Amino acid sequence: MKTTTTVILLMFFITFSLAAQDYTQTVKGKIIDLDTKVSLPGASIILIGSDPLLGAISDPDGNFKLESVPVGRQSFEISFI
Q: Which residues are within 8 A (CB) of 57 and not within 5 positions of it... i.e. 6 or more apart?
């Protein structure tokens, strides 16, 4: 009886700890000008509503990579000076 109780408790705690994980994703892309189709180096990409603030700056080819973005539908603000 003691072994059965121990096994049930162990299964409960393993399941509980797996459910507590926060799932994240990596968002990658390339920033280009709509009219000229030229890549925009140095563009700022910010995840709206993130706390702490998550953001990235595009490289010389316009590519960017944001890591640890929560899974789901997200909104981004992109600016270029």
A: 42, 43, 44, 45, 64
